[in-house]
Amino acid sequence: MTDQTFFQNCSKTLATLSGQAAEDFLAAVCRDIRSGNTSDQKVNFLLDIEVMAKGINELLFSQGHVCFIAGYEYFTIDNGDLYRAPELNPVMADGRRCGRWQTKTSMVQEYIEMVKGC
Questions:
Q1: pTM surpassing 0.90?
Q2: CB-neighbour burial class of residue 40 (10 A; exposed 0-12, middle 13-18, buried 19+)
Q3: Rounded to the nearest 5°, which phi and psi values hold at 100?
Q4: Is 41 in the same domain as 77?
Q5: Domain closes at, from 60, 83, 102
Q6: Structural domains of the chain, count
Q7: What's the confidence (pLDDT) of residue 92?
Q8: Which of the residues 51, 53, 84, 90 has an alpha carbon 20 to 30 A from that of 114?
Q9: How confident is the model over 34-86, as pLDDT tens digits?
Q10: Rounded Cα–Cα distance for residues 118 and 114 (Å)
């Protein structure tokens, strides 16, 4: 498995977990990385995972998180407008991933239902 595939698989799995299950998964990934022949990139990833385990929900979900669909996270900002960001983008210091505006407040629910149907 390439490093890129490894990171994508970990990110996809983490997106489906929360709380204790996410922390258990991160601990298992750490054990796996420590036990084998690892690349420098995986060692750096291990350090990131250990930081993530301390505040898993804050690092996995953007502030205003609505859902994950097809590789994107959908979230609302303070005024209620909906934004979309690739789920592999990091959560930034403001608590959100860098994303693009999708729709105004009054259309959020309809837009999410439309995207889920695709």
A1: no
A2: exposed
A3: -120, 145
A4: no
A5: 60
A6: 2
A7: 86
A8: 90
A9: 666 556 566 566 556 655 555 554 557 888 988 888 888 999 999 999 999 99
A10: 7
Annotate 73-91 with DSSP letters as a single string: EEEE-TT--EEEEETTSPB
Which one of 60, 80, 99 terminates a domain?
60
Residue range of the domain that includes 54: 3-60
Between residues 97 and 15, which one has the greater pLDDT? 97
Three-state DSSP state, 64: coil
Q: Is the pLDDT of residue 19 over 90?
A: no
